[in-house]
Amino acid sequence: MLAAVVKGIKLVALEEVPKPILQNPTDVVLKVTATAICTSDVHIIDGYFPPSPPFIIGHEFIGIVEEVGNAVKNFKLGDRVAAPPAPFCGICENCRKGQYGQCMNSAIFGSGSNWGNLPGGMAEFVRVPHADSSLVRIPAEISDEQAVFVGDMLTTGYFAVDNCALKPGDAVAIFGAGPVGLCAVQTARLFSPSKIILVDILPNRLQTGLNMGATHIINSSQQNAVSQVMEITNGQGVNAAIEAIGHPVTVNTAAQVIGVGGILSIVGLFPGNIDFPIQTLLMKNITVKVGLASLGNMRRLMSLITDQKLDTSPLITHRMPLKDFDKAYGLFERKEENVIKIILKP
């Protein structure tokens, strides 16, 4: 089969590799119908996280069940399903606490041996462990493009917002109009805030944010984000801020715009440790929440898409066949052609 294989730092290419087979009775093998490049893939390929090549990249994908292990009860051949970035067992201590992203029997798709050695979904086929507990069936009325982001981008954006404990009428600032930040914009609407303020430096992404539900946008390359947020909130600051970029500057800016007793929700992935604005946070009694998305929300989010409460298809700016992975990866890494998300189809 064809797959995108990481060969070393900044080295990734399409190759013919063996098709995966069932290894455990709880596995399924999927025929991938849609997959997407994630910023975390870029971080892995660039060596931000220690790579252990060679391995197949990719953790954002959906597909059709092609083979079924004899212990799998909930899925059958031909089912359309969405997978999380890290399939979880559902029975370990962490899973029983609802911390599915920290499953003690899991691995992360497409991240190499340092993260469990589970081949990723940037391929024609992929093996999924713990199928019954981690896969989510895609309803017939939902298209592949509507479903493909449920496992990662949408769960992360929703997790960021849910951590903010928003109440109707609150104000929230979202730093970063990448896919996660834009998903946070859309899921924030579910909580009825009066103001959803989106901050970024790319005009096309800010415009997409407006289309997805932001009430205010700030181009921080042209305006002072702190003064603008304070003006919008009549000097009170926001009830919560979300950092969805993974940059020290935006963490510090977010801390400045949160009002007394507010919440800072961090979901951006950082390349390393950062200077943290602890003094600012301390003096305003700000609660900090940080972590990986709660993968258990996938079913809830799929239902919200079915009910037309959410629609992440505006994130898709490019569609290409998997054979054009090299071109797609270059566009995504360099943020060319106003790219936000690229769907690749094997």
Give the SSE layout:
Layout: E1 2-8, E2 11-16, E3 28-36, H1 39-46, E4 55-56, E5 60-68, E6 80-82, H2 93-96, E7 125-128, H3 131-134, E8 136-137, H4 144-147, H5 150-162, E9 171-175, H6 179-188, E10 195-200, H7 203-212, E11 216-219, H8 225-232, E12 238-243, H9 248-257, E13 258-266, H10 278-283, E14 287-290, H11 298-306, E15 316-321, H12 325-334, E16 341-345
Parallel strand pairs: 9-10, 9-12, 10-11, 12-13, 13-14, 15-16
Antiparallel strand pairs: 1-2, 1-4, 3-5, 3-7, 3-16, 5-6, 6-8
Describe this structure in words.
- It is built from 12 helices and 16 strands.
- It starts with a strand and ends with a strand.
- It folds into 2 domains: 2-149 and 312-345, Medium-chain alcohol dehydrogenases, catalytic domain (Quinone Oxidoreductase, Chain A, domain 1); 154-290, Rossmann fold.
- It is α/β, with parallel strands linked by helices.
- The chain has helices at residues 39-46, 93-96, 131-134, 144-147, 150-162, 179-188, 203-212, 225-232, 248-257, 278-283, 298-306, 325-334, and strands at residues 2-8, 11-16, 28-36, 55-56, 60-68, 80-82, 125-128, 136-137, 171-175, 195-200, 216-219, 238-243, 258-266, 287-290, 316-321, 341-345.
- The radius of gyration is 20 Å and the shape is globular.
What is the number of independent domains? 2
Helix content: 25-40%
Uncertain regions spanning at least 5 consecutive residues: none
Strand proportion, as a percent range, falls in: 25-35%
- Secondary-structure content class: alpha/beta
Amino-to-carboxy terminus distance: 10 Å
Radius of gyration (Å): 20 Å
Q: What is the CATH topology of the largest domain?
A: Quinone Oxidoreductase, Chain A, domain 1
The major sheet is characterized as: 7 strands, mixed
Label the overall shape: globular
Topology order in helix (H) and strand (E) letters: EEEHEEEHEHEHHEHEHEHEHEHEHEHE
Class of the largest domain in CATH?
Alpha Beta
The tally of strands reads 16
Rounded mean pLDDT score: 96
Annotated CATH homologous superfamily of the largest domain: Medium-chain alcohol dehydrogenases, catalytic domain
The number of helices is 12
CATH architecture title of the largest domain:
Alpha-Beta Complex
